[in-house]
User: Which sequence fits this backbone?
């Protein structure tokens, strides 16, 4: 009897162990700021309610550069996580290496093809197979303005470059830092996305999507760099190396006038209890209304042991549920990755993000973000980062930057 009990207990324990392995996901991501963690919590709790436990692998560093380095080491060691937060071309690069799993069954059963926009599917599918589950759509051509400072400056939202410069001058007179910025290559590049777009849709497309040498090396690109020099004159002395969320905090705490940043910045404002329209104003970078430079966070699903696949598929399915899409993106600051999610629960900035995205998609003015991996593979992106950052820091003149940009892109292609 005793032996029987022990054996039964042992096999029960073994079964429980197997069940636990099957119901656990190990997730690598870079959502470590206050707003990002709050959004991640929505996902964790959703999975927990479905009996799936979460093993967290956070790798701090906005834009995910550091996370991608850690991921490479993990996969090389033969120890891939279940799911990895990833941007655009990085997903396709991993798919090319044959490292990703297959979500076709769950995608077909749930009809993802019909509700996930093709702009996102380009990165969620490889060779016709689903390899990643998109969580959201962010975009980079936004600014986040301190409402009290804007009101002091007359309350008018700047409609073009000259009005933006006038507003920044006014912030300076008010004694606050005009532009809250963190000097990190991906943040410099995020501003550059918007500045290049503000000089024309065609210009952005030819430069960053087509990588056209004439455009990369032309007079408009010099003007884009000149604008970067001008914006650089409005940051504070301590900007170098500052994390993006600390720059958001400067606007939140009335120390700075505005921040140029993707709509994940809204997550920080919300986390701090700030309200759009009352405490802060969201608007497109002047001159880019009607256009959107997007990036979508997707969970790339890696090839894992068979007993881990059910949890992986359950995670993918949970992410694409319309209710989850609304709950998560309301907190994250992004738009849903599905076109059929009602905007009811979103604030005015979220409603605008959803509408802008749909409009840009229809009018052909939706472009992949260069700064966030949706215009080019990492090699080209990093080559552009390097030139943009050196120029922003005064190591290159605009003329030199233009020449270097052409060479860097050519070398990285
Ligand atoms: C991601 C966002 C994230 C931001 C800052 C972007 O690349 O798409 O989800 O909040 O980086 O970390």
Assistant:
């Amino acid at each position: 009897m005793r032996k029987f009990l022990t054996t039964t207990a042992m096999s029960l324990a073994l079964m429980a162990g197997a069940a636990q392995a099957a119901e656990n996901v190990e997730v690598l991501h870079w959502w470590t700021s206050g707003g990002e963690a709050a959004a991640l919590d929505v996902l964790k709790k959703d999975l927990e309610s479905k009996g799936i436990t979460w093993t967290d692998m956070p790798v701090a560093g906005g834009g995910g550069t550091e996370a991608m380095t850690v991921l490479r080491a993990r996969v090389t060691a033969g120890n891939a996580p279940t799911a990895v937060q990833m941007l655009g071309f990085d997903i396709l690069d991993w798919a090319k290496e044959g490292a990703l799993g297959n979500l076709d069954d769950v995608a077909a059963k749930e009809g993802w093809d019909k509700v996930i926009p093709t702009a996102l599917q380009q990165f969620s599918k490889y060779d016709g197979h689903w390899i990643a589950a998109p969580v959201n759509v962010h975009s980079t051509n936004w600014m986040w303005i301190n409402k009290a400072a804007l009101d002091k400056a007359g309350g008018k939202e700047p409609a073009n470059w000259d009005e933006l410069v006038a507003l920044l001058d006014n912030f300076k007179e008010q004694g606050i830092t005009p532009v809250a910025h963190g000097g990190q290559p991906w943040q410099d590049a995020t501003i550059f996305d918007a500045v290049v777009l503000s000089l024309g849709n065609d210009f952005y497309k030819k430069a960053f999507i087509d990588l056209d040498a004439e455009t990369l090396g032309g007079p408009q690109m010099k003007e884009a760099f000149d604008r970067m020099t001008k914006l650089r004159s409005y940051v504070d002395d301590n900007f170098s190396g500052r994390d993006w969320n600390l720059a958001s905090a400067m606007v939140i705490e009335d120390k700075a006038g505005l921040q140029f940043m993707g709509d994940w910045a809204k997550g920080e404002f919300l986390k701090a209890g700030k309200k759009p329209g009352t405490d802060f104003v969201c608007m497109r970078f002047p001159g880019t209304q009607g256009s959107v430079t997007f990036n979508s966070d997707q969970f790339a699903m890696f090839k894992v042991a068979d007993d881990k696949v059910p949890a992986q598929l359950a995670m993918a399915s949970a992410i694409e549920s319309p209710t989850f899409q609304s709950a998560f993106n309301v907190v994250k600051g992004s738009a849903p990755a599905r076109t059929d999610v009602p905007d009811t629960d979103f604030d005015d900035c979220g409603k605008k993000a959803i509408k802008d995205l749909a409009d840009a998609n229809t009018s052909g003015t939706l472009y992949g973000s260069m700064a966030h991996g949706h215009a080019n593979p990492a090699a080209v992106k990093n080559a552009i980062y390097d030139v943009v950052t050196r120029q922003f820091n005064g190591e290159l003149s605009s003329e030199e930057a233009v020449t270097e940009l052409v060479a860097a892109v050519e070398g990285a292609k």
